[in-house]
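Today's session is about reading a structure prediction critically. Students often jump straight to the picture, but the first step is always the sequence itself: look for stretches that repeat, for charged clusters, for runs of hydrophobic residues. Only then move on to the predicted structure, which in these notes is written as discrete structure tokens rather than atom positions. Here is the chain we will use throughout the hour.
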Amino acid sequence: MQTPSTTSELPLPIPTFSLYGEHQGWPTPDLIHCESIAERSRLHDWRIHPHRHSDLSHLLLLTSGEVELELEGKRLSCQAPLMILVPALSVHGFTFSPGIQGHILTLAAPLLVHLRRELPDASRVWTRAGATPLGTGGKRLVGLMDHIDAEYRRPARDRSVLLDALTKALTVEAARAATPPSQRISGVKPDPGHVHLQRYQALVEQRFRQHPRVSELATEITVSAAHLNALCRRLTGRGAQALMHERVLLEAKRELTYTNLTIAQVADGLGFSEPAYFSRFFKRLTGCSPKDFRQRQQRAAPPPGA
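Below is the predicted structure for this chain, in token form.
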């Protein structure tokens, strides 16, 4: 049962996190993060204060328990079984009943771009904030989420391929189950800076290998570089150049982890004129060299045939 009501004005500024309570970058080379809802919420006494993410979107599946959901200035009192969708930049908070059961799947912006190309219709579900009670069809969603959670935690052969397929399947099932338009939360005007930030992130996704100047992208968005940098800092806590560097670093981590490319080949593919420049860039942002990072990832990988 959903009971919408207007919540009190949220305190400002709204914090922006990578994952709730974390100010560091994306924790793994993966473009998804999956965990049980209880894993993080019990650390915060079951209360997740209102916050937002600049480039992450959530899908929560609750199988038992209750939640007070704050989403874009509205409050919903909900009971499981329930699906909650939280798009990037949406202000959201939760108060869960102790012992809540379920999972939260988080997708990074590059994976959402991929889903929009592969599933142009179904992927729209990731842009629609709302909570949807689940009927019998929810069993398929829960089964897919359980499979994703198990695969995410076990670095087995062809893990990324299977996670990609499972995420697509979950997206299709979520789109089928999602709240009808007439019942979605609406009437909240988005921050006008969101549009500029989303356009900047899309341009970064297209061109990060070419290392474009922030001023060039700002011109395409029809804002000044100073204004773009200011809104990036306001909405994400990082400057425009830092967001560009984070995307290059994420791709570097993925290629060092999941491909057999040499470090020189990774550097060249990411637009660095010399491997030494890439190594300095990588170490400055991570504290370790590309070679050391790759060796750590290899030590954590399962043995052949696993």
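Discussion point for the tutorial: The beta strands are 5-6, 32-36, 47-51, 56-64, 66-71, 74-79, 82-86, 92-96, 101-108, 130-133.
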